[in-house]
Design a protein that fits this description.
The chain is mainly β. Strands 1-4-5 form a three-stranded antiparallel beta sheet, with no helix packed on it. The protein has a three-stranded antiparallel beta sheet with strand order 2-3-6, with no helix packed on it. The longest helix has 4 residues. It is globular and about 30 Å long. 14% of the residues are buried.
Length: 78
Amino acid sequence: MNPLRRPLALPVRVLAAGPALAHNPMCECEELASGQVKCTGGFADGSGAPGVTLDVIGYDEQVLVGGKLGDDSTLTFK
């Protein structure tokens, strides 16, 4: 498996707080041409999720990439 795609095969955990708990969190990740991975988060009602913590975790529950979604509800990493 391409090492850049490996993070996409791992579980993605989105943690939300406050009123956002009323809607299911969603996240979609894609590999960009530059070799980076871009994840876009939001909620089931269609709203964005700026500032929400997104952790990419391995099968052993270790955090591989951690961060917060930006103003555009995305997080890009390599």
